[in-house]
């Protein structure tokens, strides 16, 4: 049982530099939360404040309704996995994992049992007598994980724990960590700048930018209902494409005019766009919602710049009006660079953003 | 044709392997001419009488001389207390500067000044400072701590008092040096190791004792060895403050015999004495390494 609340949390480093400007977040019991954002967005600073490694400039941190804002790290009942593992090189794997248990003065047999349990859970049971210097990076990471699990913390903090692993190991560890979370059910906060990592692990993703929260939501929320252009352009591999269009509405329906194409859309469904009559708005389209269409049905046609085969699918890049538009198409369709293809939009899944605020224009369908 | 080819390849290989040896050759030659040869010569001469006959007489003379035992005792006292005090203070300062408080880099710069001064300058500075009409008494009088009649005669104290004075001056000069070494070691450890200690239940003291100090051990060993060696060899400051033979220490006795007394006989005594000092230095270093466990092989538990 552990709930975590951040209330109006802020951190100022120097007079002008803010690490975190304002954070309000409620983390439910057993939830796996991912803090996601580009470097310098304040996600690690937020985590360090929760851990007690960073003083708080303003705001409150509540853990199970207890104010822990000014409490020493050791009394917070949190544990942490560090980016560079931070396993202690002069202690054996056993001593690393047992460190906190020994300081808590648990009985010998309890310590032994707990270390064995957690070591087995992360599959380093046979390495307990080794020193970290004799282990690979992946194994050291597991030691760090076991050390954090052994405490049985109320909140489990993970600071980019996978970023130093090679690509294949990283993907495997993702799966394993998610499985461990399902087993331990510890409330977890995971920091990363890798959006695909965030999408695959999180119950809810907190997307941050410039020390503020931009959007909180499930992976589906942030992908299909991105709160603004930043989120739409950050989430997804590749991220969303943007087109600047002029919106016009008359008795015939809504027409979006672009210098290169004209798109008629359902006035019933995109009701809210009527308010933007004769105004420029931003149309956002996910790469898989750009469709190949025959000449007569195509909204516009363009030459293929580059094709990136991915095995299960292929990414096609088109040069469009001086910028690059990317689409995802199934494997097996034979295309060459230089080919001219016709394109259509999946009209069920269009995203619209206000040109000034860059915020999502919320349509009626999403209010349901 | 093929064999010729092979030979040229081999030649290239051998030539490549020769390069490092050729590069260190000048150093080796220098080492032999100006170091090993004179040292060997001194060792040999220390076992000969003035007439050139092999003898242990020089050593027997030293071991019969009560001044030698005073020098030995004084040196041991200086080494033990100065190294201990310097280490504790330097470690404290290194920990303080490593917290990177505001202005810590300026403090680091200030602290390094004594290190830049040569021993002669330090000796001159303190001997003028500690003279009865020196600047130390002036300062004390300015702050009305002593009056004109009550001026402290620093350099007239007894053996032990004088030695504490020497330790004080030595510490003043050497602490920055030890601190820099320890600080470099601390910065090599990185903050995450300590932060992990705090997260996993450690108090400041527990983290210091169970994480920082063990991880810093190689650096501590280096600093201690260097300090022990140079502490055994202290002499210049003592001579500048007190002159020869007031506070006898080992190396001061060597200098006294070789340079000051200077006759053929005393020169041989000086050589024998330096052999003894060299043995003591090596023994102390090995003993320290042994006690600190640096010889133990890692990870074979």
Write the topology of this structure.
The complex is a heterodimer of chains A (368) and B (301).
Chain A: E1 4-12, E2 18-27, E3 32-36, H1 43-51, E4 58-63, E5 66-67, E6 78-81, H2 93-103, H3 108-121, H4 137-150, E7 155-159, H5 167-184, E8 187-192, H6 195-201, E9 204-209, E10 212-217, H7 219-224, H8 229-234, E11 241-250, E12 253-257, E13 262-265, E14 279-285, E15 290-293, E16 300-309, E17 313-320, E18 323-330, E19 340-345, E20 351-354, H9 364-367
Parallel strand pairs in A: 3-8, 3-9, 6-7, 7-8
Antiparallel strand pairs in A: 1-2, 1-4, 4-5, 9-10, 11-12, 11-14, 12-13, 14-20, 15-19, 16-17, 16-19, 17-18
Helix pairs in contact in A: 2-3, 2-4, 3-4
Chain B: H1 2-46, H2 57-64, H3 66-98, H4 104-116, H5 119-130, H6 135-142, H7 159-189, H8 191-199, H9 204-232, H10 236-242, H11 250-261, H12 264-291
Question: Number of helical segments of chain B?
Answer: 12
Class inferred from helices and paired strands of chain A: alpha+beta
Shape of chain A: elongated
Multimerization state: heterodimer
Shape assignment of chain B? globular
